[in-house]
Each structure stands twice: as structure tokens, then as C-alpha cells.
Structure prediction request, 204 residues.
Amino acid sequence: MKKLLIATSNPGKFGEISHYLSDLPVELVSLKDVGITDKVEETGATFEENAILKAKHYSSESGLPTIGDDGGFEIDALNGEPGVKSHRWIHGDREDSDEELIAYTFQKMKGVPAEKRGAQLRAVLAFVTPEGFVVTAEASTRGVIALTPSEQRSEGFPYRSILFLPKINKYYNAHELTDEENEVYNHRKKALSELKPVIIKALC
Prediction:
């Protein structure tokens, strides 16, 4: 059985990607599984550039076909911030904690009226093979920034305790959404659904 490297050090992302690819006849492995501990400097100006950068680096290092992932939170009232800086929005030189990001978002959105609180979580996934084949897919889930954060937290996904989905009157949080709602709204699943046929053709 061929191996597919999921190149993320975020346990939440690894679990989510693994879940949505679990029906593929490939062995899904993590960076830890293949003994890779280094981090790629995310120098790209876009999610797509960073996703490709990570996938290419780890594919070259491991010799395996690889999925790289990048994405973040985009707030309409802040002209798309924090965008590619979603996890280094406050300090820049280090990753911010989930609670820091939640508190900082509400600080930045203080006084912004309900009709201007639109936002989205966007994910871009890159599939790269050692031979140099590259393909990307992206998807987003739109909602509004709530006036207060959810009491529920998903470790590694701070913005899901902030983004509220008016259509179903729930936060975009795995602890609050049903399995069926997760299938409909999960932005990473939508992107992976586009990639799956490409991965199957390349590896299966």
C-alpha cells in the first residue's frame, strides 16, 4: 500500500485531514511517523504559495507524495486580516496561543456593528509528488464574528470558537455541529473532496 504524507504539525488538522481521507486505499502518515521535525518558514504571500511550499519541502525530505495545508481567518471589516498571519497575528515572531487570538479578534472588532461582522475560514491544500506533480484545491466557510466566543474550544482551531453560522444558528465548532452539519460546512472537507480524485489517479 502506498503512503501519503500529511504535512502538518497541528494535531487537529492532521486528525481532520486523516478523517476525510480515511476511505482511500493508502497509508496516511504524519511528519512524526517519518521522523521529520523541522518546520518550513512560511514565506508565501498567499495561502496557496505556503501550502505548495510546505508540500514540496516535505515531499522532497520524505520522498513521499505529500499534502500541504495552509489557511486562516479572513475578516471583511479588517480587509481580510489576519489572512496568512492567522497564527502569528499578534507577536509575529512566534505562534500565538488560541486564547490570545480569540481575545485579540474581539479587541479588534470592538464596536463593529452586526452587519459588518462578516468573515470566513479558508483552506488551501496542495498535493505534491516526488516527481514534481503539483495540484491545489481551496474552499471556505463563511459566517459572522459573534459578539462573544463559544464556550467550546477546538484545540488548534481558535477561530472556530468565533465564527458563527447564522443559517444553522451555531458556532463553526466541531463540538457544537452534528456529524451531518460538519459534512456540509467543513471547509477543509470541501477542498479535500476536490483533491481526492487527483490523489486516487496518482496513487491508487
User: Anything to note?
Assistant: The radius of gyration is 17 Å. Helices lie at 11-21, 47-62, 98-108, 179-185, 187-203. The mean pLDDT is 95. The chain has one domain: 3-203.
